[in-house]
Automatic annotation (TrEMBL):
<keyword id="KW-0325">Glycoprotein</keyword>
<keyword id="KW-1133">Transmembrane helix</keyword>
<feature type="transmembrane region" description="Helical">
    <location>
        <begin position="12"/>
        <end position="33"/>
    </location>
</feature>
<keyword id="KW-0472">Membrane</keyword>
<feature type="domain" description="Strictosidine synthase conserved region">
    <location>
        <begin position="162"/>
        <end position="249"/>
    </location>
</feature>
<keyword id="KW-0926">Vacuole</keyword>
<keyword id="KW-0732">Signal</keyword>
<dbReference type="Pfam" id="PF20067">
    <property type="entry name" value="SSL_N"/>
</dbReference>
<dbReference type="GO" id="GO:0012505">
    <property type="term" value="C:endomembrane system"/>
</dbReference>
<dbReference type="InterPro" id="IPR011042">
    <property type="entry name" value="6-blade_b-propeller_TolB-like"/>
</dbReference>
<keyword id="KW-0456">Lyase</keyword>
<comment type="similarity">
    <text>Belongs to the strictosidine synthase family.</text>
</comment>
<dbReference type="InterPro" id="IPR018119">
    <property type="entry name" value="Strictosidine_synth_cons-reg"/>
</dbReference>
<keyword id="KW-0812">Transmembrane</keyword>
<dbReference type="GO" id="GO:0016829">
    <property type="term" value="F:lyase activity"/>
</dbReference>
<dbReference type="Pfam" id="PF03088">
    <property type="entry name" value="Str_synth"/>
</dbReference>
<dbReference type="GO" id="GO:0005773">
    <property type="term" value="C:vacuole"/>
</dbReference>
Length: 381
């Protein structure tokens, strides 16, 4: 008499999985067909050309030109303010066949490249690039094909090169390798699995050597040096924490937790006053918090489910309105200002807030546009 019971249980499980799969499919359809933008006169929405998305990080050259940003098809593009248009500046991979155009670039980004963190060396005019698949690269002031300068540290290849900053005095580059287990296209798996293979790395400009600064990190992401260069800030996206690593003073080598965020932090950018803007991708819901606190659940999801966990999470986040924000902090991690996006769609999935020339430039790893807002008219929350 146990056979009918087992059959009934299997049938129920099949129906539940079918229903769940249907929800995911509907969510994906909504993702691809929801491109509405809530316009107003206080900000400017700048579309990304060529079918690309994800202007994740920004950098301005020594003449104030730009911003420059990397997008999903492997290009680094430059904004020409006088002409109000984007132009191609550089690429991180010589393989460009099939890279551009309106399609799912996540399937080709390991071939075409996916530039994330960008920073100009102010003395040389060179642009340093953290590409999720190609490692650390550099390209000259005239752009073109970037040259790789670091692909591993201590014999272990970079798996997900992410964010960077440059010591403008020494030329040394500090950058994060978010995971050696999961590539960028599976970044949600890094979070829900509790992966702790992330690393903080230093590239020494004179010796051309890479040095491991910290390991066993849980999705290390944004990184930024202090104005005097005596410490470095970096975030762990999984734990939503902000860390301070002392590089000078008697505290050299010490690591301190100086802030805990209400959502998942991405990039950090220092403004001219020495304060730091942290982009918050989305708020951390109770369900995801529970999954993160029980890594066996996340690992089971990653292993057993025949769906793209990253896309499923993105779709659900869009449906339930997980809005992003920008948080400005002082050098001690105290909150100075919060820019909240809960009243408009354009601030979903914030990757970076860059304060430059009385403008905020707001990036996203998923949106097909950049938002520019005047600092004088952006309200405090």
């Amino acid at each position: 008499m146990t056979i009918p019971i087992v059959f009934h249980a299997k049938a129920m499980a099949t129906r539940i999985l079918s229903f769940a799969f249907g929800v995911v499919v509907v969510a994906i359809l909504l993702l691809y067909f929801d491109h509405s933008i809530n316009e107003n006169q206080e900000s400017m929405v700048i579309p990304i050309p060529g079918g690309a998305v994800g202007p994740e990080s920004f950098s301005f050259d020594g003449h104030g030109g730009g911003p420059y940003t990397g997008v999903s098809d492997g290009r680094i593009i430059r904004w020409l303010a006088n002409e109000s248009r984007w132009v191609d500046f550089a690429v991180t991979s010589p393989e460009r066949n099939g890279c551009e155009g309106p399609h799912d670039h996540s399937q080709t980004e390991h071939i075409c490249g996916r530039p994330l963190g960008l920073r100009f060396n102010e003395k040389t005019g060179q642009l340093y690039i953290a590409d999720a698949y190609m490692g650390l690269l550099v390209v000259g002031p005239n752009g073109g094909l970037a040259s790789p300068i670091a692909k591993e540290v201590d014999g272990i290849a970079f798996g997900f090169t992410n964010s960077l900053d440059i010591d403008q005095d020494s030329g040394d580059v500090y950058f994060t390798d978010s995971s050696t287990r999961f590539p960028r296209r599976n970044h949600v798996s890094v979070i829900i699995s509790g992966d702790n293979t992330g690393r903080l790395v230093k590239f020494e400009a004179k010796s051309k050597k890479t040095t491991l600064l910290l390991d066993n990190l849980r999705f290390p992401n944004g990184v930024a040096l202090s104005k005097s260069g005596d410490f470095l800030l970096f975030v762990e996206t999984t734990t939503c924490k902000l860390y301070k690593l002392w590089l000078k003073t008697p505290k050299v080598g010490n690591v301190e937790v100086i802030a805990q965020f209400p959502g998942f932090p991405d990039n950090i950018k220092r403004n001219k006053n020495g304060e730091f803007w942290v982009g918050i991708n989305s708020r951390r819901g109770k369900l995801l918090e529970w999954v993160i606190s029980n890594p066996w659940i996340g690992n089971a999801l990653v292993r057993l489910f025949p769906i793209d966990i990253t896309k499923a999470h993105l779709c659900l986040a869009r449906l339930i309105g997980r809005y992003g924000m920008g948080i400005r902090l002082d050098e001690n991690g105290n909150v100075v200002e919060i820019l909240d996006s809960s009243k408009g769609k354009r601030w979903k999935f914030v990757s970076e807030v860059d304060e430059e020339n009385e403008d905020f430039w707001i990036g996203s790893v998923t949106n097909s546009f950049v938002v520019r807002e005047k600092t004088s008219i952006t309200p405090n929350q």
